[in-house]
UniProtKB/TrEMBL annotation:
Residues 1-22 are annotated as: Disordered. Belongs to the small GTPase superfamily. Ras family. This is small monomeric GTPase. NCBIfam families: small_GTP (TIGR00231). It comes from Ciona intestinalis (Transparent sea squirt). GO terms for molecular function: G protein activity; GTP binding. The keyword Hydrolase applies.
């Protein structure tokens, strides 16, 4: 059975915690960044609970946890940091980046400004990694993926898929365009690929 827990934990408390991981599971920490309203929380909750919930408080910061088997048979204990969309103190952002093993940067295809924010967030992550290093990671294998959400809202599209692909290529990131509302399989695949990239599992 897969164990799922959801909790809201201030980051200053999280730093002092060392969550227990049972059995052979490997703890894998993922930070999810992006502007408010792009669907970060829905993305995380969809993976953890398989449910889609459209409305959230964009100012809350939560840590979601899920024990999960990455195919073919890799037990992983995911800790997923759902960051608030508003501007944060740089020192707080840097601590969150140092905490994580991998990163998802989300934008909405219906929000041009959220897409324009991607390069800054990618630079902040990459710069912090290169200056400080990550546990188990080198600069070259720290997974950073860009996710374009809400592709079910095609009538409201403001960012083309090709633009997302081009930016991801320029930034050296993997790219996915999805609908959190419509597909859980795509989200699970992203989290699986993050872990595979992190551990260089074939």
């Amino acid at each position: 059975t897969q164990r799922t827990t959801m909790q809201s934990t201030p980051f200053r408390r999280l730093r002092k915690q060392n969550s227990s991981v049972s059995g052979r599971s490997h703890r894998f920490r993922v930070a999810v960044f992006g502007q408010a309203g792009v669907g970060k929380t829905a993305f995380n909750v969809r993976f953890v609970t398989k449910r889609f919930i459209g409305e959230y408080d964009p100012t809350l910061e939560s840590i979601y946890q899920r024990a999960y088997i990455v195919p073919p048979n890799y037990p992983v204990f995911y800790e997923i940091m759902d960051t608030p969309g508003q501007e944060e103190n740089n020192s707080v952002m840097l601590e969150k980046i140092k905490w994580a093993d991998a990163f998802v940067i989300v934008y909405s295809i219906t929000d041009r400004q959220s897409f324009a924010e991607i390069p800054r967030l990618k630079f902040l992550v990459s710069h912090t990694i290169s200056n400080n290093g990550q546990k188990y990671c080198t600069k070259s294998n720290t997974p950073i993926v860009i996710v374009g959400n809400k592709n079910d809202l095609s009538r409201d599209r403001m960012v083309s898929r090709s633009e997302g692909e081009k930016l991801a290529l320029e930034l050296g990131c993997s790219f996915y365009e999805i609908s959190v509302r419509e597909s859980i399989d795509e989200i699970a695949f992203i989290f699986e690929q993050l872990y595979r990239s992190f551990r260089q599992v074939e």
